[in-house]
Design a protein that fits this description.
The protein has one domain. The relative contact order is 0.07. It is mainly α. The structure holds zinc ion. The site of zinc ion has 8 residues, from helix 1.
Length: about 100
């Protein structure tokens, strides 16, 4: 038997070395997938940090809650909408005429 004991497809490799190489390729693929999952998690967490920095309070670090916080200003804080800010902005802006 050329294959290693842990080979997922025993008998398909002509030598132990080929079997080991095939296994290593599979591990690499897993590693890549893991890394891209990690990257996605990093993006999510930095988005979460953005929200917190803006004073939003996402209920959790899930995309749904983060996006919810951006859309609704977070769950716990009083809602401050663009309309609420508008009078202050208008008052601070000098009129042209
Ligand atoms: Zn094998």
């Amino acid at each position: 038997m050329a294959c290693r004991s842990g080979c997922p497809v025993p008998g398909t490799h002509s030598s132990w070395g080929e079997c080991a190489r095939a296994a290593r390729i599979q591990i690499d693929r897993h590693g890549l997938q893991h890394r891209s999952l990690e990257k996605a998690k990093d993006r999510r967490l930095s988005r979460y940090e953005d929200a917190v920095r803006q004073g939003l309070e996402p209920r959790s670090t899930t995309w749904r809650d983060i996006n919810d916080a951006f859309e609704n200003g977070g769950a716990e804080k009083p809602l401050v909408t663009a309309q609420d800010m508008a009078p202050a902005v208008a008052a601070a802006t000098p009129k042209e005429d």
